[in-house]
Write a structure and sequence with these properties.
Residues 1-31 form the signal peptide. With 613 residues, the protein is α+β, with helices and mostly antiparallel strands. The chain is flat and about 110 Å long. The two termini are 72 Å apart.
């Protein structure tokens, strides 16, 4: 019994092995079979639609299915058959001759070994719409088919206005207009309850760029509560709506509103004039007080100068000046008290000004050498004489006399030196500590492995991202964009981090860094544009540095190894810095969303990584 079961198991195992070997031998033969003598092309029956700025695939499939790699594939716009958008020949895409409008934006979707010759067109513009021809040629046969591409452009929000109807009767004329659509949109009117209102008057016009403007108007009963809604749309995803109350303002209401506005304006103007007048009076009183103090000080100085000759005047008179002997002729207050004499200190504080008072009086200040000319009371050691310090300040030459003796004003030199030391470099947000400005420390950003493309490997404490061959990835993906998001999110405040995008000894092919909003479609192949929630700085070896705006402003950088990213959630700005040269590269000024995530991409087919430092 057991022998029988064993023989049956061996027979089943041998049968399975034969089936597997037969399958392995059959599949390569089928894939490698030559092109048939004749074939046809399968394309969509209707037009292919896409949004402006997105990517689209124009489908084209050979039938029966066979390997189309040895064939010639030509895609061209029907208006320009001599300059193809893409030419595949000799097992590779040819660089010329091709239409320059499509350079860098077209590629084959892939799967030519299965007969798939579809075209992928990126960054679609309105000029790309129209008929495209897919032509496939073999040595014995050729076939071609047409694919129609329509580009949808969502226009501006409708502008509504109300005017009195000519006939009166309590009705008003409501107008709705919107521009910038492609193709021609639809327009509907609805009331407050959502009921659609029928209308007959509608006008469509086209501008030189092919964009359509639509206008409509209708007569409606005047109302202050029953609003009207005008909706212009291409689809549920691409529509604009505006609302208005269908009534005109009463002339009496306008008159009353004008009078009230005029009175309030006059009151505010009078209040502002009163405040300015009070400030001017206060400043005038302060100026007059300073002038009075200055004149009194000058009068005291002039009176003292006439009584005591300064050393400069004594030299001019031919006399010897012995300052050493002067020190021994004046007693200090301690010696006067010991001798029973009175000491008169009155007037000292009124005659010797400190530097602050001299500046207030409008005089020049020279602090150099002044401390060596004013003697303190303990240096006047002459017994038997009365000390009166009222005129002592005359032994100190005035700044004007010091300047005549060849001295310089050191405060002016110090001020000039401080100004000349200023630098004109742009500081990064981490360098505003010495000047007392707001300080932004670098964030310790951690990468979220769960959001990484399967072809990206996250290492070194989840702060390094590196591209790996997609065939080596554990889970192959159909996602076009290779990037990874940060684990942290930001909703308020200022945040700064730095990314080392290359070493000086290496040559990166491509990369991009920036931020994305929280609810962005992470698993779909949406274009990386601000409209789709991405704000990034990119580098491509062929295109150079650029941001994802339309049009793309030129960014000229000689060398860039470290990128500084500064996100201000409160001001809705995102700035990129060249940390090597401490210069600003670009600033997005309208980055509005509730929550932000940092986004990083090491590029495609690039062995060198990027990392957060």
């Amino acid at each position: 019994m057991f022998t029988t079961v064993g023989n049956r198991g061996t027979m089943h195992l041998g049968l399975c092995l034969r089936v597997l070997i037969l399958s392995a031998l059959t599949v390569p033969i089928r894939a490698a079979q030559p092109a048939p003598e004749t074939f046809t092309l399968t394309v969509p029956d209707g037009p292919t639609s896409t949004l402006s700025g997105s990517s689209v695939s124009l489908l084209c499939q050979v039938s029966p299915l066979f390997n189309a790699e040895p064939l010639e594939v030509r895609w061209y716009h029907s208006s320009n058959s001599h300059s193809p958008a893409l030419l595949y020949k000799d097992h590779k895409i040819q660089e010329a001759p091709v239409d320059p409008r499509y350079r860098g934006r077209v590629s084959l979707t892939g799967g030519m070994e299965r007969g798939n010759v579809s075209l992928t067109l990126e960054r679609v513009t309105l000029e790309d719409r129209g008929e495209y021809v897919c032509q496939v040629t073999s040595e014995q046969w050729y076939e071609k088919a047409s694919v129609f591409l329509t580009v949808n452009v969502t226009g501006r929000e409708p502008v509504l206005s109300v005017a009195e109807a000519r006939g009166g009767g309590g009705q008003v004329n409501v107008t709705c207009s919107s521009e910038g659509w492609s193709p021609q949109p639809k327009l509907t009117w609805r009331n407050k309850e959502g009921t659609e209102i029928r209308y007959e008057q509608v006008l469509n016009t086209s501008d030189p760029h092919g964009l359509v403007s639509v206008s409509s108007w209708l007569l409606y009963a005047s109302s202050y509560s029953d609003w009207l809604a005008c909706t212009v749309y291409l689809s549920e995803e691409a529509k604009r709506e505006g609302r208005i109350l269908p009534h005109t303002a009463v002339p009496g209401v306008y008159k009353e509103a004008f009078i009230v506005t005029l009175i309030l304006s006059l009151v505010i103007i009078c209040a502002l004039c009163s405040v300015i007048l009070c400030k001017r009076r206060g400043s005038m009183w302060s100026s007059s007080q300073k002038s009075r103090n200055r004149s009194e000080t000058e009068h005291l100085i002039e009176g003292a100068e006439n009584t005591v000759l300064t050393p400069t005047e004594q030299r001019a008179a031919g006399k010897e000046v012995n300052l050493k002997a002067v020190e021994n002729t004046v007693q200090n207050p301690t010696e006067h008290r010991a001798a029973g004499e009175d000491v008169h200190l009155k007037g000292v504080e009124n005659t010797v000004q400190n530097p602050t008072e001299q500046r207030a009086a409008g005089e020049d200040v020279n602090l150099k050498g002044a401390e060596n000319t004013v003697q303190n009371p303990t240096e006047h050691r002459a017994p038997g004489k009365e000390v009166n310090l009222k005129g002592a300040e005359n032994k100190v030459p005035r700044p004007t006399e010091q300047r005549a003796a060849g001295k310089q004003d050191h405060l002016e030199a110090e001020t000039n030196n401080s100004i000349e030391g200023a630098e004109n470099t742009v500081k990064t947000p981490t360098e505003h500590t010495a000047s007392g400005k707001e300080v932004h420390l670098k964030e310790n950003i951690i990468l979220d492995e769960k959001t990484a493309h399967p072809a990206i490997r996250v290492t070194q404490g989840k702060q390094r991202a590196q591209y790996i061959k997609e065939k080596d990835a554990e889970k192959p993906s159909v996602r076009t964009h290779l990037h990874v998001f940060s684990k942290e999110s930001f909703s308020s405040g200022q945040h700064y981090w730095e990314v080392k995008v290359k070493d000086k000894s290496t040559e990166k092919l491509s990369w991009y860094v920036g931020v994305a909003r929280e609810n962005v479609e992470r698993r779909c192949n949406v274009p990386l544009t601000p409209q789709n929630g991405f704000w990034i700085l990119s580098y491509d070896k062929e295109k150079g540095f650029h941001v994802n705006t339309d049009p793309q402003p030129p960014i000229t950088v000689a060398e860039l190894t470290i990128v500084g990213v500064f996100l201000d959630c409160d001001r809705y700005t995102l700035s990129f810095y060249n940390v090597d040269t401490k210069s600003l590269l670009y600033t997005f000024t309208d980055v509005k969303t509730s929550n932000y995530f940092a986004v990083f991409s090491p590029g495609r087919c690039d062995i060198y990584s990027i990392r957060i430092i």
